[in-house]
């Protein structure tokens, strides 16, 4: 069985940028000017910033060869930053700005400076948290082949313990932030590409910045160099919050999008007694972004346990009980995470404690804001979801939010290998035995070949599915996500995010046509069609390796075949073998749970009082069970 990869921090010492800056060739330095707009709130980071670019050989001390705009609102901050600048003799190229600023204002100022330079000049434009690390040979090739353009890609540097740590001026930044990650674009949806170096003139035309990252009419440059990005230090959380508030106060479309993006980023962090740190789901998404496996890994020590089960139990305390009824069949030592709404979080934790299940835990999922333990939804999806609020009846809204909570719970699973179960499933074997079914001979695993496994729907037997296939080829079949087995990798994250996006798109389309889709009919807003297309698309384009589980892993729609009944029924006892073929069911679904262990019986939910009457979908406490108020 494959276990969690724990990478020691010493592994990051092999990364190139643990050394100092590499001096650029003289042919470039003789032409290169420098521009930066920096906040004076972080003098320690400014120390590293200036030392780095001076180490590259840039002439920051030569009058007119640099423009450093120092933005300050506090005199104390200004003094600390000026001391750093004066100590390096850069203060003569400092220009002060104490007024409001924006990305547009900064770009305009950079363009004015660029236009003032000689025609053969080159310009480096850097933000305070960006240390460019292009090799000297790359700079030489850019001068020779690319007109002086050098393209960079962010490598996000994060502390070893995932906290937003303060920057120390007297210690290597690489040692303080050893994790090398791809968070800016892959997880947070930001632009992680930037021009490190641009010429004043290209093709007899003046080069003009479009944004801090891009210029107009740039050439196609395929090679990229590292930009060490120290965005995630102690000041980051406050800056993100300030930016979110600033954009939220405006009413234009661009500001609404930016505010939503920053809301998502803020959701990736949690404030605690020891500061601010990345939430678990954000750590997992960042560590496995782009499936970048190398000696410079972001770090694989991001899982609570190698294996576990996950439930989304939203809709009130009864649904928490329903999920716990299911989880009780997985064995007393099974690791289980329940994602519940905030108002049932205390109930969930108390029930797990009463049941004496030390390996059960509860986390909050908020479908209304697409949030779960650090999951960051794309801003466009979040905006669209907000606009849909109130478009349906209360009953349908709860159903839709419950389906979305399931997707978010899959994204937020704290386990490397996860068994996701609908709350109304009934596992017929313990979790260890179910996961043992994923193992092969000589330590092999199904997850070496496949990432995500779901059982086919019974309707797949119709063969030619037509519109029911939801756009995927008929031969792909119809999958059901009520039971899913998967091992985390970035392709899984992209699939789940695509599923969320397509489901919100589908909801928007249907609500726009109330004549065809009744807003009061919950069946019209199922998530299966979006999942079907997302799974096929991810397999076809993003490298997701999808495999079909046997129907015995999700007996919901296969009951007719298993039971001999003409149609699906809940009259069969949960986990009962096929009466004619003795088929062994591994996970039952939509069955009669009344014969599960009763209150006080061995293997039941003990004195906590959870028992069922009839259909597992309607499992409720039986009157007379001790330890539960009725």
UniProtKB/TrEMBL annotation:
Key word Signal present: yes
Protein name from the UniProt record: Nucleotide-diphospho-sugar transferase domain-containing protein
Source organism per UniProt: Pelagomonas calceolata
Signal peptide interval: 1-17
Keywords: Signal
InterPro entries: Nucleotide-diphossugar_trans (IPR029044)
Organism ancestry: Eukaryota, Sar, Stramenopiles, Ochrophyta, Pelagophyceae
């Amino acid at each position: 069985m494959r276990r969690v990869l724990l990478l020691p921090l010493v592994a990051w010492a092999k990364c190139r940028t643990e050394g100092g800056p590499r001096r650029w060739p003289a042919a470039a330095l003789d032409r290169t000017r420098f521009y930066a707009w920096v906040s004076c709130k972080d003098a320690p980071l400014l120390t590293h910033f200036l030392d780095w670019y001076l180490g590259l050989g840039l002439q920051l001390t030569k009058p007119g060869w640099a423009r450093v705009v120092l933005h300050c609102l506090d005199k104390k901050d200004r003094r600390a930053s000026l001391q750093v600048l004066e100590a390096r003799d850069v203060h003569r190229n400092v220009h002060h700005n104490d007024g409001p600023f924006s990305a547009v204002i900064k770009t305009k100022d950079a363009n004015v400076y660029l236009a003032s330079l000689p025609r053969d000049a080159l310009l480096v434009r850097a933000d305070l948290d960006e240390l460019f690390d292009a090799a000297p040979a790359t700079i030489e090739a850019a001068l020779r082949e690319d007109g002086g353009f050098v393209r960079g890609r962010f490598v996000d540097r994060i502390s070893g313990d995932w906290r937003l740590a303060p920057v120390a001026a007297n210690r290597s930044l690489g040692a303080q932030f050893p994790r090398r990650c791809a968070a800016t674009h892959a997880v947070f949806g930001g632009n992680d590409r930037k021009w490190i170096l641009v010429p004043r003139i290209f093709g007899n035309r003046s080069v003009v910045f479009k944004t801090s990252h891009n210029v107009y009419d740039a050439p196609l440059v395929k090679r990229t160099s590292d930009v060490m990005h120290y965005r995630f230090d102690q000041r980051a959380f406050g800056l993100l919050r300030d930016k979110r508030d600033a954009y939220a106060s405006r009413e234009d479309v661009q500001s609404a999008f930016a505010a939503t993006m920053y809301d998502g980023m803020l959701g990736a962090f949690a404030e605690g007694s020891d500061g601010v740190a990345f939430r678990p789901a954000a750590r997992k998404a960042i560590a496995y972004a782009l499936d970048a496996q190398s000696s410079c890994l972001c770090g694989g020590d991001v899982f609570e346990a190698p294996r576990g089960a996950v439930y989304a139990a939203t809709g009130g305390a009864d649904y928490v009980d329903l999920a716990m009824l299911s989880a009780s069949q997985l064995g007393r030592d099974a690791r289980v995470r329940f994602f519940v709404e905030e108002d049932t979080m205390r109930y969930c934790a108390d029930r797990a404690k009463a049941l004496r299940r030390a390996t059960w835990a509860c986390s909050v999922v908020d479908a209304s804001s697409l949030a779960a333990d650090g999951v960051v939804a794309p801003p466009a999806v979040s905006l669209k979801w907000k606009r849909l609020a109130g478009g349906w009846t209360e009953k349908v809204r709860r159903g839709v939010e419950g389906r979305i909570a399931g997707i978010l719970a899959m994204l937020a699973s704290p386990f490397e290998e996860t068994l996701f179960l609908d709350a109304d499933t009934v596992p017929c074997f313990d979790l260890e035995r179910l996961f043992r079914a994923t193992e092969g001979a000589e330590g092999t695993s199904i997850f070496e070949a496949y990432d995500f496994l779901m059982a086919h729907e019974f309707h797949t037997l119709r063969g030619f599915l037509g519109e029911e296939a939801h756009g995927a080829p008929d031969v792909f079949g119809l999958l059901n996500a009520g039971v899913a087995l998967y091992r985390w990798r970035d392709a899984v994250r992209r699939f789940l995010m695509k599923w969320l996006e397509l489901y919100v798109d589908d909801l928007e389309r249907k609500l726009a046509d109330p004549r065809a889709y009744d807003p009061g009919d919950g069946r019209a807003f199922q998530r299966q069609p979006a999942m079907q297309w997302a799974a096929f698309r991810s397999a076809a384009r993003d490298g997701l390796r999808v495999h079909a589980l046997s129907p015995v892993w999700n007996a919901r729609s296969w009951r007719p075949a298993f039971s001999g009944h003409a149609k699906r029924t809940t009259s069969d006892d949960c986990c009962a073998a096929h009466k004619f073929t003795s088929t062994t069911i591994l996970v039952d679904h939509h069955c009669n749970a009344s014969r599960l262990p009763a209150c006080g019986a061995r293997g039941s939910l003990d004195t906590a009082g959870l028992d069922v009457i009839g259909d597992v979908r309607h499992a409720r406490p039986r009157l007379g069970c001790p330890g539960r108020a009725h």
